[in-house]
Amino acid sequence: MKVKSTLCAIIVLLACLFCGAASAADTIKIGVLAPITGFAASDGFSTIESIKLAQEKVNAAGGVLGKQIEVVYYDDAADPKQAVPLANKLITQDKVVAFVAGSYSMPSRAVAPIFDEEEIPLVAAYALHPEITNGDYTFRNGFLGTTEGRVAAYTALELFKAKTVALVTSDNDFGQTLKDGFVGYLKSVGREKDLILQQTYPSSEKDFAVYLSKIKDAAPDVVFFSGYYFQTAPALKQAKEMGIENIRFIGEQGSDSPKMAEIALDAAEGFVILTNLDRDDKRPFVQEFLKSYRDRHNIEPDMVGASAYDAFMIIVDAIKTAGGTDGKAIRDAIAATKNYDGLTGVINGFDAAGEVLKPVQLQEIKEGKFRYFGIVTDSELIKP
After folding, report:
1. Angle between the N-to-C axes of helices 303-322 and 327-335, in degrees from 0 to 180, rounded to the nearest 10
2. Which three-class secondary structure state does DSSP give residue 242?
3. What local confidence, expressed as pLDDT, does residue 21 receive?
4. For position 1, what pLDDT does the model report?
5. What is the rounded CA–CA span in Å between residue 147 and residue 144?
6. Quick check: 135 and 116 in contact, CB under 8 A?
7. What is the Cβ-side half-sphere exposure of residue 36, based on CA atoms within 13 angstroms?
8. Which residues, 6+ apart, have CB-to-CB distance to 11 below 8 Å?
9. For residue 214, what pLDDT is reported?
10. What is the pLDDT of residues 313-326, one digit of tens each?
11. Cβ atoms within 10 A of the Cβ of 267, count?
C-alpha cells in the first residue's frame, strides 16, 4: 500500500509539473519595468494600465500565434539600481521574449545593454536619452531629447514668432539632451544671440521663484521651460502668482500629464507642449483607447500610457511577422516596421539606430485639458 501511495503521489506530481509547463508554454511573455511607486508613480500607473488595455485587446482577438500574451511587470521606482536586478529577473526567471522599457531615461539606460547582450528586443516607450538605443536590439517609440529640443526652438521662433527666447532645463540626462537640441537649432539658423537667458535647476527643485524672477527681469517672448509635470506645473503656478504676463511658456512630453492642470489650475491655460499623443486624433481606434482609459480610471490618458501601449503593440506585431519568438527574428521585424498605425501617430519606421520616425504633436491646455494645437512633419526637424 505504501509503494502504491508513493507511486500515485509521483504520478500526481509529474502531472502537475507537466500541466505547469504546458500552461507556461501556452503564453508568450513580454516584460515591462515601470515606476509604479515613488516620485513618478502616476507615470508608472499610466504605463501599466495602458499596456493592460493593449494586452486585453490582443488576447480577446485570439492572442498571437495561437497563444495568449502574458505581461510580466515590476516596479523599478525610476531607479537604475532597482531596475538592473529586475531586468535580470525578467530574463533568467520569467523568460520574457521581448521588453517594454516603460520607465525614465536613467533606469532605461541601465537595463538596455543587458537586454541587448541577451538578444532580447527592447522598445523604449518614452525615455529620451540617446544612449538607450546604442544596441542592435534596442528601439525607441518616443522621441530623442535632442529632437524635442529642436522642435521646441522651431516652435518658439517660427510658430510664436519670438524675437527673444529663454531656456530652463533640469540638471539630469533629460534636461541636458533637451538643451542640446534647443541650442543646436538656434545655432543652425543663426539665432543663438536671441537666447537671452539660460538656467538649469536641480531635478529635486520645488521652488522656482529664483528662476522665474530672472525670467521676469529678462522678459523674453517665449520660455522653453522643460521638466516633468511635477516641476513645470508648480513653476507655471508660481509664475502667475508673481505676475509674469505676456511671456509664452512652452514645454515637452514630461509635462504631458492630466496632473498639469490639476496642480497648476488656471495657470496652465495656454501652455503648449511638444508630445506624441493628439487627444483630438480622429482615427477610431485612438478614440476607442482614450474612451476606454477614461471610463476605466476616470482620469485623462497621457503620452506616457499611449507610448507604452504602442511599444507593446509594436512588439506584438513583430512577433506575428516573425512567426515565432526567436529574438533576432522579432528584432528584424521591428526594424522593418513601416507605416504602422500607432496611438501616437503613424510610425513611418525606425532608422538604423532604432529611433522612431513619426511627426511631433503640439498640444495646448484649454479648459484644463490637452487639445490639438499643431503638428510638425518636417523631416529635417523631426529626424533623430
Report:
1. 120
2. coil
3. 37
4. 42
5. 5
6. yes
7. 10
8. none
9. 98
10. 999 999 999 999 99
11. 22
Q: Give the chain's residues under pLDDT 50.
A: 1-24
Helix (H, G, I), strand (E, B) or coil at 201: strand
- Spatial contact of 308 and 51, defined as CB atoms under 8 Å apart: yes
Q: Quick one: cell of 123?
A: 522598445
Q: For residue 25, what pLDDT is reported?
A: 63
Residue closest to 28 by CA, chosen among 322, 342, 292, 332: 322
Q: Cα dist. 111→87, 130, 246 in Å?
A: 6, 14, 44
All structural domains of the chain, each given as residue ranges with its CATH number in brackets, are: 11-142+281-350 (3.40.50.2300), 145-275+363-382 (3.40.50.2300)
C-alpha span between 106 and 62 (Å, rounded): 36
* Cα-to-chain-centroid distance, residue 322: 25
Cross-sheet strand order for the sheet of 138-140: 68-75, 27-34, 98-101, 122-124, 138-140
Spatial separation of the C-alpha atoms in residues 100 and 115, rounded to whole Å: 11
Grid cell for residue 355: 529611433
CB 102 within 8 A of CB 24: no
Residue 17 has what pLDDT?
A: 37
- Ranges of beta strands (E only) in 12-56 are 27-34
Structure pTM? 0.90
Looking at residue 7, what is its pLDDT? 38
For residue range 221-241, list pLDDT tens digits in order. 999 999 999 999 999 999 999
Rg value, the chain, Cα: 23
List the helix and strand counts (H, then E) for the chain. Answer: 13, 16
Q: Which amino acid is at 314?
A: I
